[in-house]
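Researcher: Here's my situation. A collaborator sent me these components and asked whether they could plausibly form a single complex. I don't have experimental data yet, so a predicted model of the whole assembly would be a useful starting point for our discussion.
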Amino acid sequence: MNNSLKKLIEDSIIEALGEQGNSPPIFITQPKKREWGDLSTNLPFSLSRKTGESISKIGERLVSSLKKKNFLSRVEFTPPGFLNFFISSQYLVRTLKNVLLQRENFASFSYGKGKKVHIDFVSANPTGPLHIGHARGAAIGDSLANILSKVGYKVEREYYICDVGGQIERLSRSVWVRLQELEGKRVFFPEDGYKGDYVIEIARKAKKDLKEELSTEKKEERLLDLLGKFTVKEILKEIKKDLEDFGVKYDSWFAESTLYENREIFKTIDELQKRGYTYEKDGALWFKASLFLKEEKDRVLKRKNGEYTYFARDISYHQNKLSRGFDRMINVWGQDHIGYAPFLKVAVENLDPFHRSPEIIIYQFVTLMRGKEKISASTREGEFISLREVLNEIGKDVARFFFVSCNADTHLKFDLELAKKQSAENPVFYIQYAHARICSIFKKAKKEGIKLEDPEKIRLTSLGEPEEIKIMKKICLYPDVVKEAAEALEPHHLVGYAEELAALFHQFYTKHRVISDDKILTLARLCLVEAVRIVIEDTLTLLGISAPQMM
RNA sequence: GCGCCUGUAGUUCAGUGGAUAGAACGUCGGCCUCCGGAGCCGAAAGUCGCAGGUUCAAAUCCUGCCAGGCGCACCA
């Protein structure tokens, strides 16, 4: 299935350019003014610079060979050097029928060619509940996964569980201390321990569930190990539940400890050594990052005490992904990993014979506000707004919409008060309202005994009002929006699109009646609004937001 | 100090080197006999952080400043 209008135009241009057609990249964009067409390109500029032919000559030549295309009603060359395209009503009608026939597959593509994509997001350390910062990563990662699978990739969502290392030790020690306190003993709470109340809850649960083991096991080391495993399991249970309520479901959960169990970590280190990417210094094993990254310091793979660093484990994890046959690996990380990303990339790509490299999407942190006041977020100190609280306060739809509505690079400010207060006028409701309104039109139609027939049989040419044309044109662009969001790995493009489509619908709705005495027009308009409904539902689904029939 | 990211309307954010920089919220003024008013129509609101440069064309690319966020571990 391919309903991309831009591709159609692009192909026609390439065809028109003929044999000598190794043209510069063709950019087709939506112009700002209606007189400039529905789509336009600046190709005459760039082509002229390349070939030396005059801009207007190129323009005129392209116009004359493109104007025969039946999906265009008009092609114009407009000085200083634009080609403006006008979509034909024939194409508008055909597209409307396609939406009704193909429904949620209208914007599906084979673009990804069934390639396997691994997407790793959130992957928060199991040392505490998810907080609001993780929510942004969850919203971006999950929507991206949805979008990529829509354009034809085989997507696997995975959560990487860091269940190894010093943080887990600190966590289990914190639980142990809380346990002692429950026994009535006064114990000094470690400076670097986890201070959140959830630790006390877990201690309480451990006291009940691990009663026997706790009383028989005397060796502190074994005891801490036992507590650690129990705690990680408990916290993961909560994380999983929070994510599910946020609309996120993973295909797999990968525990870091399995890298030791199947000895992959050792193989990775061997390979790095064999290739001469390592050296020993001060009793530690180092990665020669400077081989690939000038001006960067080398990094430790294996510490003096014999433990592997997170870096070493992470390289091994990525090799594991490659061994599972993934063509692309996408990691969605918070900006605190920004300096680390290049190291992982060079290590992984230089070990792989095909030089596949993780693609890393960095999202900037959310500044959380309550009115004018900033709220800090630290898992260690136990000061954070949990994802759970956000879900309870403002709900999944508003939260997901908010986190996915702007570019990952934006340092966005999130005012909880405002999010709650504005909720009635929030853009997400504006979009959902359009959907609910359409559903209610169909309820009325049903009551009056009107049924939507086979769209092929309905005379859609009776749709000619400006508001109707605008809607159809917007719908024609939907597949391209999805494709562009997939190519750029930027879900936020869909948000802007959904708002625009909803606005066009509301404008149409205010001015015209769908159900009227004119039977033919009624059916045509039902088709039109049903197409709007399908597309809105589709965008909302990609963003993980519900499309309610009633509000 | 070095690296990455950001700076666009009162606020939150869009904006693929192109044509007169957009939307939402907020503010002000209009619109309910009729499919849902969580809607529609209109108005006010901008030195695109500052200064240079490249280009026929710069919010967008380059350089330098200023301000903010995050990194620069034998943490993860």
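Model: Some features of this prediction you could bring to your collaborator: The CA atoms of residues 115 and 138 of chain A lie 23 Å apart. Residues 166-245 of chain A form one domain.
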